[in-house]
Amino acid sequence: MKVHFVTFGCKANQYDTEKFRQELEARGALVVDDVRQADTVVINTCTVTNQADVEARKAIRRARRDNPAVQIVVAGCSAALYPSDYAAMEAVVGVVRGHDPLELAALIAPQSPLLEHDEEPIGAVLLARDERGTRGWMKIQDGCDRHCSFCATRLARGASRSRLPADLVAEAIGLAQHHAEIVLTGIHIGHYGVDLNHGKQKDFSLSRLVETLIAQVPNVRFRLGSVEATEIDDHLIEILADTGRLVPHLHVPMQAGSDNVLRAMRRWHTREQYRRRVLEISERLPYLGLGADVIVGFPGESDDDHAQTRALVDELPYTYLHVFPYSVRDNTVAAALPNHIPRQIATTRSSELRELALEKGLRYRRARAGQGAEIVVEAGGFGLTEDYLRVRLLGDPNSRLGQRLFTALAIENDELVAYV
Predict the structure, then answer these.
(1) What is the pLDDT at residue 124?
(2) What is the rounded average pLDDT of the residues 325-340?
């Protein structure tokens, strides 16, 4: 059987697709890049916005058009929320309401009826290798217990569920045989271990997990995926500052720099709490790749609210930003809020923040020129530094593909370069 994958959405979804791939390959399937060669197409959906649902349906129709004989299986977050809608589409032979690779494998090989799904087990299958590149992804938890007013992911992914440290160590040891870097990802990794703790015992946390991985998995560096700034404890800051094994790069969602908007978003922190924690972290590190998500044009966002967000972006040492105009998502509290912002205003505000972020990123790259860096060599003649800078590699990078190397950075036409 030949299988083609189409994946939408976040890093956790990409990891889930790798688990799907591994499980199907273990049952004799061959993964193909061309949908026209496939017997089955697996579409791993996202539901972060209404448009994400639309794109998934477009992908189904496109696969059917490109290969009229193909059978389609739909999985992921959108499939968890709208299983009947997908099951009714032409050529869809099954729907997995979530991301369980064992359910997907049972559905495809052998074929079986539509599966019902409540909440998938966490960590039932270990990922041995990430086929997408030189860096490996490892999902440490799934789901979310927060209730941000703009987000439907918790409805699709369920409650926060943490994988056991022993399973993660075993998976990391396997991944380290093939990858120079392992990225710890999930839906809400700052809540790692909360569900594993009992009573007053606090034996499990993100910082303790990282400490365990560093101690038991040598010869690989670790990177955190997106993590809330206010959930980074002092122990984790110490690991970032002192070990050299957890790279100095953090992606800390801000969403807004105004307390009025943060309250409307049902975020659990204030502007000042976020600001103070980011500064405490950055002051401990000699250099730091720092990114954030920002939603602009949220319902009720005034000019003053936007000005506060811009001021916070200007103050904090960001090296890049992901800026999104607010998009209505069905089944969320925010969709019913009054005073939605016209699209043109949201677009203008987005452009302002993106331009500011580009300026800050350029200043940071120029400051890093002339300094040393540890680079993971990736395909295409590029590499990635510990602080999340893309570097064009000179010399013969293919001979060092997948390796970590220490080298000096230079800058040409505002692009970082390094000699291999």
Answers:
(1) 59
(2) 93
Q: Is the pLDDT of residue 111 over 50?
A: no
| Cα–Cα dist 43/420, whole Å | 39
- Rounded Cα distance between 208 and 258, Å, is 32
**115 pLDDT higher than 80:** no
**CA nearest neighbour of 249 among 155, 117, 386:** 386
CA–CA separation, 129 and 179 (whole Å):
8
pLDDT reported for residue 118: 45
Q: Determine the pLDDT at residue 132.
A: 77
Q: Domains of the chain by range and CATH? A: 2-108 (3.40.50.12160), 135-368 (3.80.30.20), 372-419 (no CATH)
How many Å apart are CA 155 and CA 151, to the nearest integer? 8
Q: What are residue 384's DSSP bridge partners?
A: 376, 390
What's the whole-model pTM score?
0.89
Residue 408's closest CA among 378, 373, 376, 375? 373
Question: Which range has highest mean pLDDT (242-246, 327-331, 387-391)?
Answer: 387-391
Token readout for 278 is: 């980011």
DSSP-assigned letter for residue 241: H
Of 82, 59, 57, give the one whose Cα is nearest residue 330. Answer: 82
Query: Order of strands, edge to edge, in the sheet holding 135-139?
Result: 135-139, 181-185, 221-224
First to last CA, the chain: 41
Note whether 389 and 289 are within 8 A (CB).
Answer: yes
Radius of gyration (Cα) for the chain, nearest Å?
22
Give residue-wise pLDDT tens across range 252-296: 999 999 999 999 999 999 999 999 999 999 999 999 999 999 999
What is the rounded CA–CA span in Å between residue 121 and residue 327? 31
Alpha carbon distance 170, 132 (integer Å):
20
Q: How far apart are CA 170 and CA 217, in angstroms?
A: 9
